Automatic annotation (TrEMBL), chains A, B:
Alphabetical list of InterPro entries matching this protein: cNMP-bd_dom, cNMP-bd_dom_sf, RmlC-like_jellyroll
Protein name as catalogued: Crp/Fnr family transcriptional regulator
Pfam families linked to this entry: cNMP_binding (PF00027)
Organism: Emticicia soli
Domain of life (superkingdom): Bacteria
Amino acid sequence: MQIQQILNQIYPLPEASLAQLLACIDEVSFPRKHLLLKAETIEKKIYFIKKGIVRAYAYQNDTEITFWFGKEGETIISMKSYVANQPGYENIELLEDCQLYELQTEKLQTLFEQDIHIANWGRKFAEQELIKTEERLIARQFSTAAERYTDLIKNHSDLLRRVSLGYIASYLGITQVSLSRIRGEKR
Amino acid sequence: MQIQQILNQIYPLPEASLAQLLACIDEVSFPRKHLLLKAETIEKKIYFIKKGIVRAYAYQNDTEITFWFGKEGETIISMKSYVANQPGYENIELLEDCQLYELQTEKLQTLFEQDIHIANWGRKFAEQELIKTEERLIARQFSTAAERYTDLIKNHSDLLRRVSLGYIASYLGITQVSLSRIRGEKR
DNA sequence: ATCGTTTTTTAACATTTGTAAAAGGATTCC
DNA sequence: GGAATCCTTTTACAAATGTTAAAAAACGAT
């Protein structure tokens, strides 16, 4: 997925503004299992996924909980770092070899003050991430794990192929045993 | 709570920009039990709460689920309407007589394109709402209902006084019977 | 192909949570 | 101030989910 497409999808930018934004972005690659972001640190960069799949997880007591998957076209970001300059909760681990676009957020902050189009791009970016987060929250509050699993099959069936069920069970908020029972009932 | 304080808390605005924003805002009052926002409609306004407390709820099958409480200084908004001009999920009911500041979002959208300070105000607004939503999601995914109830007592003890336990149980994602059991164990 | 590792399923049992109904308290409104 | 309503707790039982352990299946590297 090309970076121009990702950026313009968020909010179409005039040529000059787009060029300024692109100047803050590099392309980088990391292997499967690489830990891209560490929890409890302030992250200075955000990433857009060109190719690959990743998961965000954190610890509850001793056990790891996976709370997000990201794939092509999506953004890897520690919102707490980005918005409030505070340490975030997420560890981000690559589940496949990945190609990423890396954006220095400090440079971005400067552009927000200088260019109204980029400020509105930043607004739309936050708004769209907000809608996604809200949808996740609503799904969690209103659907059972079984329903969310069915949704996952319907709308993100590639996840099943690319991610092991232990992570998916954790993401759904149930044990792997429970997920196995749900899968069993569908047969 | 004064509107200038609410607005400037989000992002400090120059005099002229603030004046433009204030020109889009009216003060309104509604009684307890008034239904301020209806689900499945596109809402053209957002509200800031001057005085009072409200809840957002939606239906899961036949049963009402309360998924948010708002009080003084907070924003009542259908994010789906605001961001995507699509019908939202929230019904908003006033739990007390309320004084609100009402903002016409259409006018706001125009200002975003004209004034970089207001564009950045809008960006910060979305970012801060995003952090709040993310924190709610994390709390839900990482804490048990009992832990979230303890949190509620610690950080929002006024809710216990102002809101009946049935709504709080629903908000915590458990039945009222379960909440009663949790409360019983603490004695 | 095979050994070793990882992933997924199955089983038995314990624990938690939900459901429905009743009873006890508190509050509201003539 | 008292009937009616609403809110909260309690009880008994049913259903769902978790825990632990073991077996089965799938996958990877040599």
